[in-house]
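Notes on consecutive records. When two proteins share a document, each keeps its own sequence and its own token line. Never mix them. Below: protein one.
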Amino acid sequence: MALSLAITAISFALFALTPSDPAVLPLVILNVAISATFIFALRGIYFALLEEGGIPMALTGTAAGVASALGFVPDIYMPVVGGYLLDAYPGVTGYRLLFGFVAALALVGFIAALLILRLQKSGQTRLSRGKSG
């Protein structure tokens, strides 16, 4: 998950920094393919986290519901943020800001994934403590 988030952050940062020159179109298309691959890889592992996190079977439905609610929150605010940025900063500037914003969100996700990995490796998660003692 951390790797996918890191690559997504880099990919969107590249979108934000890519010059608006038709000569770089093949690189932009390649970047679209890379970002799409890793975004869909992330979607594929949403629910693998339930098992990895040691969620008890009795709470799996609740945990899946919370994960789904949180996972789809961007569908609520991203059109508003995107619309605002593109209206307030027309043209290339608006798109650079929008892609930069998405890159920053992916970077926050990357940091969160690293923190979760650290907690999991150290055995300090609440669920793992509850299971062992």
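Protein two starts on the next line and is unrelated to protein one.
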Amino acid sequence: MIRLVYVGALALVVGTVLGTGSIVRSAAQAATDKEQVARVARDYFEGWYTADSDRLGRSLHPDMVKRYVDAQPGGRQVLFSVTREIMLEMTRAGGGSKVPAEKRNIVVEVIEVSGDIAVARASSSEYLEYLSLAKCNGDWVIVNILWRFQAAAARSR
């Protein structure tokens, strides 16, 4: 009888230790995922500003779509979309490379990572973008972008 209690207590202790291990492992994975999401967002923005289409391309899912609400004459608003291929073409043509590095002011914030999906906010002196990411085949990639010009940049256009 005492032996069964001891085995039961030992099993409880082992179960608790193993459970804690998976919590620690989960926290470590979450931190790694957050770092990877931030790196992908930086690769996207810095790839654009350095006209590095390979770097930008690695950050984008093949079916990525980038969208913004465009105000038309008469007040009508249209959802404008850009595909991954168009982004790559624009990057190869120079992207944002005309903006001096000291004026880019790139900031990346990972808002949330939940399992294999994440949301990040990336901004520069020109753009504010919300990035939806997914972990596909073990790699984080951007699947959707909603963006707008920064207020100061919009006034100068």
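For the record: Strands lie at 60-71, 77-83, 107-114, 117-123, 127-136, 139-149.
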